[in-house]
TrEMBL record:
Topological type in the membrane: Lipid-anchor
Lineage of origin: Bacteria, Bacillati, Bacillota, Bacilli, Bacillales
Any single GO BP term: spore germination
Family: Belongs to the GerABKC lipoprotein family.
Domain Spore germination protein N-terminal span(s) in chain numbering: 22-196
Species name: Salirhabdus euzebyi
Protein name: Spore germination protein
Length: 384
């Protein structure tokens, strides 16, 4: 090629391929880190609250500023998510940017309507800036009010809530985080499932308990509170830590779980007689006792282990019976074990497992619990 032609072409290509031609300075970004979704006041469509970070407030000159200075909540209403977001983009000086998006909070009122969850999550699943790891929560009440909480130890409410949501390894009354990617799979397979519940207190929020979602309609049918969630975690194998409080000789003792394992075996005699055996094994230590304990005595340890075993059995049976009678949906995933262990019979009953005859609500649970208390990590006697 003639050099007089090639040189101008090279220069043109260099201009076109320049990496920063469409850059947006960080100060001009509107970093959306969380959204809250409520029902619109007129009953049609959504009310969307977007929590946007104000980058300039994080500099050294703003260190003494209030927690509310670092973010801005913008609330708008509309019939579709895309419509609302585009409207906000036209009204703000900073273009909304979702690469650091962390949290979607949906109000219970909105989640109760049939197939609302798929419509809401559709935008977050499709939009190219969204992350599949973004967490989803159901608010017991208003989602907007959750994002208006002013935490004392964080400058951004969304970061505060996001940090609490991952504490399930310390609290057995929390379910693991619910992410958009996981919920997308649930929406496709029509299984019932649970989502983390968030609730506003006077000055804080609580992420304890869970929202029960019926798989066929993808709608909220109720909440499992703290006790029920703890029992559910034992049945699903999601216990990652926490404590069990029980009585020994009329006084409180606290068992601190270090490791917990579970195994599920299913038995199908006939369609109306499905038995689910759940073996739960845990190893831990006594974290606190309001009476003197002598760990040199094997009978003392054995007696306490039996008491803790009975406490866990009671928890899982209470949860199982409540879900069977009140919700009538298999949020424990026992249907998956039936499919793996009895594939042919499962094909015959799967349509009536949660619907129709509802064999789930007729099934029998047999929990088997084995507790082992470590001696090496405890002093032999606390006091006389």
């Amino acid at each position: 090629m003639n050099k007089w032609i090639s040189y101008p072409l090279i220069c043109i290509f260099l201009l076109i391929l320049a990496g920063c031609w469409d850059r947006v300075e960080i100060e001009e970004r509107g970093f959306v880190i969380a959204v809250g979704l409520d029902k619109a006041e007129n009953g049609e469509g959504f009310e969307l609250t977007q929590q946007i970070v104000v980058p300039g407030k994080f500099g050294p000159d703003s260190a003494s500023g209030g927690s509310g200075d670092a973010y801005l909540n913008i609330t708008r209403q509309g019939e579709t998510m895309f419509e609302i977001i585009r409207e906000v983009a036209a009204e703000t000086s900073r273009s909304p940017f979702y690469e650091h998006f962390k949290l979607v909070i949906i109000s219970s009122e909105l989640a109760e309507e049939e197939n609302n969850l798929p419509h809401i999550l559709d935008h977050f699943i499709r939009y190219h800036e969204m992350r599949r790891a973004t967490k989803v929560m159901i608010a017991k009440g208003s989602a907007k009010e959750i994002l208006e909480v002013e935490p004392k130890n964080e400058r951004l409410p969304a970061i505060y809530i996001d940090s609490i949501s991952v504490n399930n390894f310390k609290n057995s009354r929390m379910v693991p985080v619910s992410r958009i990617g996981d919920l997308h799979e649930q929406l496709l397979n029509e299984n019932s499932y649970t989502i983390q519940k968030v609730e506003k207190g006077e000055e804080t929020v609580k992420v304890v308990g869970n929202a029960v979602i019926e798989g066929k309609t993808n709608s909220l049918i109720g909440f499992l509170e703290a006790e029920g969630t703890e029992g559910m975690n034992f049945l699903t194998g999601e216990i990652q830590g926490g404590i069990i409080k029980t009585k020994y000789k009329g006084q409180d003792i606290v068992y601190d779980m270090k490791t917990t394992n579970h195994k599920v075996k299913t038995i199908i005699d006939n369609q109306n007689n499905v038995t689910i055996e759940v073996k739960i094994q845990s190893e831990g230590s006594i974290g606190e006792a309001l009476l003197p304990l002598n760990f040199e005595d094997p009978k003392v340890i054995e007696s306490i282990e039996q008491q803790i075993e009975q406490e866990i059995k009671d928890k899982v049976m209470n949860t199982f019976e409540k879900v069977q009678e009140e919700f009538k949906v298999d949020i424990f995933g026992f249907g998956n074990y039936l499919e793996q262990q009895h594939y042919q019979k499962w094909q015959e009953i799967k349509k009536d497992w949660e619907q129709g005859e509802n064999y789930f609500s007729q099934s029998t649970l047999k929990p088997k619990v084995n507790i082992r208390i470590r001696r090496s990590e405890n002093i032999l006697k606390s006091y006389k």
